[in-house]
Design a protein that fits this description.
This protein is mainly alpha-helical. The protein has one domain. The protein contains ten helices and no strands.
């Protein structure tokens, strides 16, 4: 391939290993930061609250970043076609974004699992009575559990073997990402004090992603959600 074709899209695809490593380090850095705070005793006046909100916020944020991959891929193809780029005009040119999405999605699950583990062990104290009372008396707890339960099959099938085995059902299963994000966001809002708008950025991003997804479905554009065959 000649030099003029070596644009950003081409370089990203050829150096995907380095990009994946950088993505891994960035996604892991919040956990390392929180671990450092915990080890240094610097979690603030309410350590449990810090642990819960930090892990939960990052789980939701990374889930939304994962959902943003398909729209970004679609937009990237459109831009490449609009500027008549020599590379990046095919959906398959951006397969590396889909591969990166798996890693991001698994990190979202990791932070969600940490969030749940902190709640069950440190907040509820592994007490079944407390857990049952929370489920019945605190709606945001029920929404959080529902989001995590729905997230489990997505994490378990985030691999090529599952995609081949499930076929078209894999896409339908992973459409659960949107209801999960809605449940997680509602879980976040319901536990906020009056006047606290911390979930607002995530809410705006989810609203934008849902609008973009709805528009794409109306146009019948569903291909960019999975890897395309290389040509």
């Amino acid at each position: 391939m000649d030099a003029p074709a070596r644009n950003l899209a081409w370089l990203a695809k050829r150096h995907f290993g380095k990009i994946r490593l950088a993505s891994f380090l960035l996604a892991a850095s919040p956990a390392l930061w929180l671990g450092t705070e915990y080890g240094a005793g610097a979690l603030g006046v309410n350590p449990l609250n810090r642990l819960l909100h930090f892990s939960g916020s990052w789980a939701l944020t990374l889930l939304l970043v994962t959902l943003a991959v398909t729209p970004v891929r679609r937009l990237s193809v459109w831009v490449a076609q609009a500027v008549h780029a020599r590379y990046g005009k095919r959906v398959s040119d951006w397969n590396w974004l889909v591969r990166l999405r798996r890693q991001l999605g698994l990190f979202a699950f990791f932070y969600a699992a940490c969030h749940l583990a902190i709640y069950v062990t440190l907040d509820a104290g592994l007490d079944g009575v407390v857990l049952r009372e929370d489920l019945s008396e605190r709606p945001f707890v029920l929404l959080g559990w529902a989001a995590f339960v729905l997230l489990l099959p997505l994490a378990a099938t985030s691999n090529q073997a599952s995609m081949r085995a499930l076929g078209s059902a894999w896409r339908k299963l992973h459409l659960l990402s949107y209801p999960i994000a809605i449940l997680a966001l509602a879980h976040y809002w319901l536990q906020m004090k009056v006047g606290d708008s911390a979930p607002l950025p995530q809410s705006a991003l989810l609203a934008l992603l849902l609008a973009v997804r709805a528009q794409a479905w109306r146009r019948g554009e569903r291909g960019p959600g999975v890897e395309a065959k290389e040509r």
